[in-house]
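1st attempt posting a full record on here, be nice pls
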Amino acid sequence: MVRKRSIPWNHRWSRQIIAAIASIGIINTSYLTYTKLIGADVVCKAAETANAVSSCKGVLDSDYAFIFGLPLSLYGLLAYFAMAIFAVLPLFINQETKRKQRLQIEKWTWLFLLIGATAMTVFSAYLMYLLFTIIIPELKLTEPCYYCLTSALSSTSLLIFTVLGKDWEDLGEMIFTGLIVAVITLVGTLGVYANVSNGQIETEFTGERIVIPRPNTRPVPPLGWEITTTSTSAEIELAQHLTLMGAKLYTAFWCPHCFEQKQLFGKEAFSKINHIECAEGGENAQPDVCRESGLEGYPAWEINGKIEGGVQPLETLANMSNYQGSTNFKYKYR
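the predicted structure (as tokens):
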């Protein structure tokens, strides 16, 4: 009588475990992507003092949290979805009637899992390096971003269970593949972040590329950061038009995206905007008015009775408000 070889638990349940870890990553990145796209703030431990920025807000609003103008969490969401699909795909193929097909798909999906988990782990490791050596010191944060740590832990766990969840026939080939993917990922990551300088808005004026720095300091109440850009007649005319038609801008002095909106207008034009301070400790704060408006985040524009969240390019505000003046705006929001 031939006894079947006992299958280790980590081999038997590896795909289910990988899918479960990927699901945690999907939930985490879905939430971050949703809040970022609608311009809302993530739930995070409040800053310890009125002058401080919460860790999550500081990290997730930094320029390192965006790639090609899209939130980093969106790319993470797609990666976790792919890992979940690779993990469970063979499980839906009947092993008795389609054994050959299942074995072939298992072979390829294990390779894809190895490539994906390795790339995600290397990328996460680099992000952790940025977090602890650049972002936290520059923003003077008191603690790390727990959403970021959750994603990094999920990525590392995916790699661990991918490596230990299969009886790799050629261990050398597995290691070689992982090293190649790691090197390619690291080189690509360094290239993507080569020109990133935390806290900047890319702008363009008269064909010349201009960079407006966003201060890497804590916002000081009641005004927050000082507006450093200047306005042309186009920004001033738009600001006057928005105020005359009854548009309102809801802001918070500690909100980096609110500061970006102010920078787009420039100091002179923004002084003419009807803006409502929503944060306690801000100048002429009206938090009750903001709560009654049902805002989900800052900044938020109320134009013609409709609320639009997030930083709005000046061209968009012009279209929303039927502005007929000059649109030769000085700054372009990426």
